[in-house]
Amino acid sequence: xxxxxxxxxxxxxxxxxxxxxxxxxxxxxxxxxxxxxxxxxxxxxxxxxxxxxxxxxxxxxxxxxxxxxxxxxxxxxxxxxxxxxxxxxxxxxxxxx
Length: 97
Prior knowledge:
By secondary structure, the chain is mainly alpha-helical. It contains four helices and three strands; from the N terminus they run αβαβαβα.
């Protein structure tokens, strides 16, 4: 299932609060960025929901704040320099063969 979070920590907190009553079987929340994941993590902490024992939280960006979260946030590391270089190479290949 997919829930919109508007890329903000507060909105992700609110969405996490709505998520579990509707879908009690949920065992993973994967956020579009670390800030949103931290919002969900904050709600779960307040609601006494154990992370990662009851629900896992995964972020995306691998920001410094993920490392200092309690518990530490699992986050996907994005290599933007490699992605940018690959996109540029693809563009140049399409333009110039």
